[in-house]
Amino acid sequence: MRWTTLCDFACFAAGIGVVAWLADGAARGVPGMGPWIAATAAAWLLYPLALRGGVPAACACLAGDDAPGTASCLGRAGGVPVVFSPRYDITACGLERAHPFDSTKYSRVFRTLVDAGVLERGEECVPSQLSLAQLTRAQGWWWLARLGYGLRAVMALELPPLGFLPSWAVWWRVLEPMQLASAGTVCAAELALARPSAWAINLGGGFHHARHGFGHGFCVFNDLTMAAQRALDGGFGCRRLLYLDLDVHQGDGIERDMGWDPRVAVVDAFHPGLFPGDAAAAACPALAERGARFFHRAGDGGDRFLEWLRTELPRVLAAFDPDLVLYNAGSDVLVGDPLGGMDLPESAVCERDAIVFRCCGVGARGGAASPALGTSPEGARLFRASGGRRRAVAMALSGGYQAETAGVVARSIAAMDAELGLVEAAKAGEAPAGS
Ligand SMILES: [Zn+2]
């Protein structure tokens, strides 16, 4: 629990006391209660604005606590660049079960990876919370101020039962876990760029619908925009960045936020009949001129999707030559997803992730490694077609709404590790920074 949550709770309790005292006074006809009632109402109205939004956000921006070149979001850097905290899970006294999103999939993916022997507990990287300056830059102080009231967040999250909770509870149980998962994506981008192994996976995040000053579609903070800003302006030597969105929904948030930045290209495959259907976002130069867009519906078949990815991703990588691929790996493309509609089988989801990592040439057996080390002909071909140089890749989990999703994600990561030697390459690299 953060100090802001404690402040929220204390003020909430004090507010209840003051209101009870005023009500008692008014009932007994004590004179002069009017100004007290007005002052209490004003304090209740303005308090979230002062605590969460305008004042502290503006101060943090002026202080500039987002110094370039420092791994500010790293709480503890482990030997394997899998970024995770059990605090990613969103639980709210059982109310979370009313939501179609499996809000504990993050820890289930982590546990499955540990059980499969991909990594050991304690080897993961644990993020600490984002600075207010990072949040404010990506989301805008006015949006943060509105989130102080909780109710606006509940609307963005499309979870009306949460509206019955006080805003401090919404922050504590929902928004702070989402903030931490957002820090995880920033952390993953930093790790991918800073370490020689050049890959990192955040077992959360991928809130690609939020944008500056606005949130919708379960997304309140856009971690991908924050990671892109951090990668490009944080002193990591990242000149260009490819944002690759293979979630079933369009990545409208980052397209609107970063799509006019000439250092960014976007490749986005999504179902054209689903939320958000944002034509203005899709018209951004990063996607329309430098990237690629692909429509895929249920019934089109996994082979068609994979064939497009095998062709277009290497083409854009070779032409745009980015230093980092920011990969939003939504698993709501999986067959049967209630909010999806692409109906890809598990094998296609695993192959999709592997194609991305093969193109980037990461892992002890990826990229330019000799065939004697086990490089597959397919992996070597994709790597050469992508320009033949290793590129950093940072992956976030994003959507995925079924009980089976966590297992599919974990099996996909384990399969990539088995093929490419991801963990082996990470452990063979330099000692983790900051540990
Ligand atoms: Zn999605």
Automatic annotation (TrEMBL):
Occurrences of domain Histone deacetylase (ranges): 99-359
Annotated GO biological process: epigenetic regulation of gene expression
Record GO terms (molecular function): histone deacetylase activity; hydrolase activity
Annotated InterPro entries: HDAC_classIV (IPR044150), HDACs (IPR000286), His_deacetylse_dom (IPR023801), His_deacetylse_dom_sf (IPR037138), Ureohydrolase_dom_sf (IPR023696)
Alphabetical keyword list: Hydrolase
Record's GO cellular component terms: histone deacetylase complex
SUPFAM superfamilies referenced in this protein's UniProt entry, alphabetically: Arginase/deacetylase
Pfam family membership, one: Hist_deacetyl
PANTHER family reported in the protein's UniProt record: HISTONE DEACETYLASE 11, HISTONE DEACETYLASE HDAC1-RELATED
Name this polypeptide is given: Histone deacetylase domain-containing protein
